[in-house]
Each structure stands twice: as structure tokens, then as C-alpha cells.
Design brief:
By secondary structure, this protein is of the alpha+beta class. The protein folds into 2 domains: 101 residues, Aminotransferase class 4, branched-chain amino acid transferase, N-terminal domain (D-amino Acid Aminotransferase, Chain A, domain 1, 2-Layer Sandwich), CATH 3.30.470.10; 156 residues, D-amino Acid Aminotransferase, subunit A, domain 2 (D-amino Acid Aminotransferase, Chain A, domain 2, Alpha-Beta Barrel). Helices cover 27% and strands 28% of the residues. The strands form 3 sheets. Strands 7, 8, 9, 10, 13, 14 and 15 form a 7-stranded mixed sheet that branches. A 6-stranded antiparallel sheet has the order 2-1-6-5-3-4. Helix 5 crosses helix 6. 37% of the residues are buried. The structure holds pyridoxal-5'-phosphate. Pyridoxal-5'-phosphate (PLP) binds next to helix 5.
């Protein structure tokens, strides 16, 4: 998984510096307990996509986590970091706020779509922590472990499913599946998944070609296509789920969703 590198550009409490020089104290509960919030924002040609949505979600996360947050400082520092990344930067910007009160932003590289390994999902049992509903918190150990378990089992990414057989999402992405080759469904937020911004935008852009609906593990055997969606993936086709083969090439529904989303982003950024 691509991550920040030491030479990446960072911002720490308003000061821009190389990531290697940005450090916080070891007693920060953001580190000790994963107690804090974060966002990852896509930057395309120097422009952030869905900037306000991410700010709003961070504010909600902080409020729900009872974390003090200076939203004005977050916005200023994000804008400063994006500007420092340059007018042609296509990247992801991660921004974290810790319980210790530190604000940290890092510019992360984007993996080109053709350099991403094909998505072979492996179902991994997972029970969402209800108390973290509506919080994009720094506590991502279980999500990272789910991906590692999926890789150990021969896949490239996990598909989180409940012990009662409901499909939820991937560790850092929303899940969409098509059963009829024309429309897609995605699990509802009432299943305690993250309110993904990409998922929300796709539901709106696809109109009556997409809906929220409970997805069972048992129903996956009837899947014709599936894809993951997130800030860092946009729309990425799934080639297999456990022993269900969905074909190496993205199907027409996935292609149409990817194109509709790309057009929506370009339109919003005024390209
Ligand atoms: C658990 C989870 N689901 C879905 C997503 C996708 O959300 P977004 O579209 O806002 O990037 C993420 C992103 O980090 C996530 O962590």
C-alpha cells in the first residue's frame, strides 16, 4: 500500500516542512490510543476535490469524538499545504488532528490506476465498533489487519463482512456490486459503515442506476460486477471475491460508473 515518504511535503501546526522533520511527542494520545481524527483529500492538478465535504466530515468526526478542533486552522493549513504542493500536483493530502492537539498534514503520492494490483477481495469477518459511528478516527489497526489477513489468504484487499453474513465495505473503501448488469447497490449507512464521500457522490451521480441496499455474503454468488470506491481509488474494478471470478476486465457498469465519476470530478473542478 502506498504511503507517505520521508521526503513528502508536510505541515505541522501551520509550519510547512519535509515529513522527515515533522515530529510529535510520544505522549500524544493520538499515538498512544489512536485518539484523533483524520481525512484524506484528493488533489487533482493542484485543486482539492470535495474540500468542503471533507472539512464538514472532519468537524463531525471531532464533535462525535469530543475532540477540540480549530476548523479554521485546519482549513488554512490544508490550503497552504495544497498550494505548496504546486499547481500541477495530483496527490492525496492526509490531515490528522490528535488528542494532543497537533495538526498534521502530509502530501501522499497517487498510485497510477494501471499500477494498482487487480482487486481480489477476500471476505474477512468484522464487527463495526458502534461507538465510532460517524467518526473517521485514527484507530485503524483493525482495518489494516483485515487487509493483511486478506493478503495472507491470497487476495489483495479485504471485504469486511459481519458474522451474520452482511457485506459492509473494504478497510478504506466503499463497496458497490451489480447483480443485474445495469444497476449497482451499496450497503446502507445503517450497517455502520463510513459515510464515504466518493460513495455519496456516486449515488448522486448515478441517480436511478445506484441504490443503497443490504448486501448479503450469500448473494455475492450472483454478482456480475463489483467495484471499490474511495478518495484514493476513485472507482476500481474487483476481479474476484473469494472463489467468485468476476472477470479480469472491468464490466460495463463499472466502466460507466468510473466515467461518470471522472466527469463529475472534472466538472466540479472546472476542467
Ligand atoms: C472504512 C472506510 N470506508 C470507506 C472509505 C472511503 O471514503 P472516501 O470516499 O470519503 O474516501 C474510507 C476512506 O478512508 C474508509 O476508511
Amino acid at each position: 500500500m502506498a504511503g507517505p515518504t520521508d521526503d513528502a511535503l508536510a505541515i505541522l501546526d501551520g509550519t510547512i516542512l519535509p515529513a522527515a522533520e515533522a515530529s510529535i511527542g510520544v505522549t500524544d494520545l493520538g499515538l498512544i490510543r489512536g485518539d484523533g481524527v483524520f481525512e484524506v483529500i484528493a488533489v487533482k492538478d493542484g485543486q482539492p476535490f470535495a474540500f468542503e465535504d471533507h472539512l464538514r466530515r472532519m468537524a463531525t468526526s471531532a464533535e462525535n469524538l469530543r475532540l477540540e478542533l480549530d476548523l479554521g486552522a485546519v482549513e488554512r493549513e490544508l490550503r497552504a499545504l495544497i498550494e505548496a504542493a504546486g499547481p500541477t500536483a495530483t496527490a492525496s493530502v492526509r490531515f490528522m488532528v490528535t488528542r494532543g492537539g497537533r495538526r498534521i498534514g502530509i502530501v501522499e503520492p497517487v498510485v497510477a490506476p494501471d499500477a494498482k494490483p487487480p482487486l481480489k477481495l477476500v471476505t474477512v469477518e468484522y464487527v463495526p465498533t458502534r461507538i465510532l459511528d460517524g467518526i473517521k478516527s485514527l484507530s485503524y489497526g483493525s482495518n489494516m489487519l483485515a487487509t493483511r489477513i486478506a493478503v495472507e489468504r491470497g487476495g489483495t484487499e479485504a471485504l469486511l463482512v459481519t458474522p451474520h453474513g452482511r457485506v459492509l465495505e473494504a478497510p478504506t473503501s466503499a463497496f458497490f456490486v451489480s447483480f443485474d448488469g445495469e444497476t449497482v447497490v451499496t450497503p446502507p449507512l445503517s450497517d455502520h459503515i463510513l459515510d464515504s464521500i466518493t460513495r455519496r457522490r456516486l449515488l448522486s451521480v448515478l441517480g436511478d442506476r445506484a441504490r443503497e441496499e443490504v448486501v448479503t455474503v450469500e448473494s455475492l454468488g450472483r454478482a456480475r460486477e463489483a467495484f471499490l470506491a474511495s478518495t484514493t481509488r476513485d472507482v476500481q474494478a474487483v476481479v474476484a471475491i473469494d472463489d467468485i471470478d468476476l472477470g479480469a476486465l472491468p464490466g460495463p457498469v463499472t466502466l460507466a460508473a468510473g466515467e461518470a465519476f471522472a466527469a463529475h470530478v472534472a466538472d466540479e473542478l472546472g476542467a
